[in-house]
Amino acid sequence: MAKIYSENSTKNLNDLKPKEETVKFLLNYSKALSVIDYNKMKFEALLN
Amino acid sequence: MQHEIITDATLVSNYIKGDESALEILIKRHKQKIYSFIYSKVYDRDVAEDIFQDTFIKVIRTLKRGAYNEEGKFLPWVMRISHNLVIDFFRKNSRMPKFDNNNEFSIFSVLSDTSLNAEKKIIKEQVENDVRRLVDELPQDQKEVLLMRIYNDMSFKEISDRTGVSINTALGRMRYALINLRKIIDKHNIVLTN
Q: Which CATH number applies to B118-187: 1.10.10.10, 3.10.450.50, 3.90.930.12, 3.20.20.20?
């Protein structure tokens, strides 16, 4: 009988998630970032 | 459950209009798929985390700048960004070999595979044959000293004992042997490289 040795790692791969801090950082980054339109130019400003 | 009802396209347009919570739903909905995709390529949790973060920074900037125009294809677009960042990561790494700084001594940092491949082996053999033929052209006394020194790895003291000449004479013959070899090589434009 052939054994599927990769079974566990495949299962783990589907359980992978980024850290909660990373998601929080991204949400905060998004809130802090504002793009200012000026004369067809776009400026990014990070306001914390 | 309400999250599942709202489509990605609606969430994206809500987010562009300023609804920050839409982004949260989008990230939570797709984070596992995107993160496992990145991890399946890099096999390193920290690197995957970095690329995941960079991916969404790009997503956020593009959306906020109003440069996103692929409505209805949010996930494939994000996957494409992460895929490009994974490629960037490998490109950067191949230019700059990484040292694992995990405090473990890696034997491979001091050991490398020095064995030659088939082509280099053939070239090496050819070079050695050429050198032997050149050595054969040398005057007998010089050739004798050179063979004892280089091929038999004898000291000049041993050479002087064996040939019955002084150490200085043996040294001189060795010197002339090398000078003559270089002369022959230059004269005939012989290329000895490996």
A: 1.10.10.10
